[in-house]
Design goal:
The chain is an alpha/beta fold. The protein is built from 20 helices and 5 strands.
Length: 470
Amino acid sequence: MLIDDEAYYALWTKHLPIGFFDHPAGIAFFMKLSTLLFGYTDFGVRFGSIIFNIIVSIFIYNFFEDKDEGIIALILFNIIPFFTGLSLIITIDTPMFYFLFLSVIFYYKAIFDNDKYFYIASLCMGFAILSKISSLLVFFSIILYSILFSNNKKYILKSYSFYLSFVIIILINIPFVIHIFDTDYAPIYYILDRLEKPGSINRTLDFWLAQFILLTPLFFSLFIVLMIKYCISFFKKNISQRYFYFLFISLIPFLYIFQKSLKNKLEANWSIFIYIGLFFIISFFISQNFYKKYIRVLFILNNILSFIIILIIFIQYITPIINIPSDPTDRYYKYSSIKYDMKHYYDNTMSKDIRIFSLNYQIPSMVNFYISPSKEAVCLNFGTYHPTVFDFWYKDDNFVGDNFYYLGTSTNIDVITNFFDDVEYITNFTSIRKPIIGEDRKLDTFYLFLCKNYKGNNLKYIYKGNKFSF
């Protein structure tokens, strides 16, 4: 099954716009192509990530003139859990990550070999930015390197290709810029609000511990050590242009994420773009020192550890051997009762003229993907959850007077009753996992209610704390 975020982004492919409330539209176009080829299915949604994992792997291998270096880079790219996960779960980070990798390679070729590569580099960078705005940090780092530190900066500044590459990026992203103005800067406010969530020492430690685990101890340790080493080499003027290019495009994003992690709450996946530059330096370092026994041993042990982690996750996903508290693979099964039990109930019992709603985006997204109701399920805004794209797709006023089915994970419906004349409990659906060892484990129960005569939410804004009209 898809996880809830994947179903949410898959739903975007049915509302292809110039932009969304909380992100640019890159993920929607990325998914749309694969769903056109393989259908609106789990496989169709994820197929693009598999293909791009292969494509980027090929470009990484061919980037290295020394094929021993290429093999080591290829192994690292496909064995590090943080990177591997992007080919198994498709979110906005997936196209951003793959297109950033390609853009970093092509910008390198443009700066050091042939300025004509600026065109394809800008195409990749443009789509990376269209997938996630944080790509801009890598883009600005590359441009700063090109005009301030590159030995070829005079040649670059005289190149028509260099300036035309900016036009390409702007053209790719101008629809989202228009969307920002059309929505009274709602995406900017929302993104800034998420970035400013207060942090704590524990959250900072949790964030960097997650980086250490997801990147593997060897990769993360080398990332920090080599960054410090080559920063010192820069001040001593003892670093090659090639190394400094890759260092610089990781250093600036890293400093940004590091200072944000000290004062704000960050999610583990928000940092993945900072590792791309140092990935190449780490690959160079390991291959050039592979003759040293301790490097070989650490590299092999790290790969074995990564493989074991990935294998355990696969086995636990396919057939849970034991009950694990907060098992991350539970996320694939949490909504199984919607896919099977509720779908059967909807097809045979529920009225097709009544729309289903919830108070978060996850549940209606899963309902739309696996049940495909006659009327698209929505997330209504009662001021209890952060805004979603549903607030832009539908006007709340148009729902006034309608009957709804409410689907939630609690029998506490105090909030719901304030917005309807009558709320009646109907039934529930429970998602269960059956491990080989131990008792069956209940993951979640979804309660279905019939809600009559919607009164409207009476909100004149869709963003908490900031007034944005529909």
